[in-house]
Amino acid sequence: MADTLKDNAATAKLVAQEALEKALTELKSYIDTQDAAGSGASSDAIAAVNARIDTLIGVDDATQAIDTFNEIKAFLAGIQDTTLQQLLNAVSTAIKTEETRATAAESALSGRVTTLENVSIMTESEAKTIFDSVFNPIQP
Description:
mainly alpha, 2 domains, 5 helices, about 80% helix, about 0% strand
């Protein structure tokens, strides 16, 4: 099964790489067409693509963007024996387990707090009576 998952991950990476290469080729072709037509639309298209990339990566610094993509690449390389969906399912299960545990603990604590709130506190005279009966027993 591990080999199948590894093969699936490798196939998914290859398909993603091919899709990215195709999209870049189509974009280059579009820009070349716009430049050849002299419409000036290519600079508008480039600005639009740049804005989308900036929005996607959320940074203004190219070095930081490259680092971000390298981190994503390293993460994806590290999950060769599993799928992203399996990782998300594991996280979801862990969250649900913790939610169940926390809910049970809160319920148990709530009952104890209610019990403590209903406990009457001993008065000083009651405490003195108990003390005296223990340490100063009445002699017959």
